[in-house]
Design goal:
With about 60 residues, the chain is an alpha+beta fold. It is built from 1 helix and 3 strands; from the N terminus they run ββαβ. A 3-stranded antiparallel β-sheet has the order 1-2-3. A hairpin with a 6-residue loop joins strand 1 and strand 2 (about 20-25). The longest helix is centred in the middle third of the chain and has 12 residues, at about 25-40. The protein is flat, with a radius of gyration of 13 Å. It starts with 6 loop residues before the first strand and ends in a 9-residue tail after the last strand.
Length: about 60
């Protein structure tokens, strides 16, 4: 397996059509985003540029 040393984050905001993905090389951004999620803080998602991948799951609902 070849590693590219990036982190991939995903979240779903409602239905499967509202699923988003991002990738980053910043471990600090990932840690901050996960802490924010764990502490129910809003705004951590704004740190990243998200791609809607809901069409990958179109038949999941």
């Amino acid at each position: 397996m070849k590693h590219d040393y990036t982190y991939q984050l995903e979240f779903q905001d409602g239905s499967a059509a509202e699923r988003y993905q991002t990738r980053t090389i910043s471990q600090e951004k990932v840690i901050d985003a996960l802490r924010g999620w764990a502490e129910s803080r809003q705004g951590g998602k704004d740190t990243f540029m998200w791609n809607n991948i809901g069409d990958w799951f179109a038949n999941a609902d």
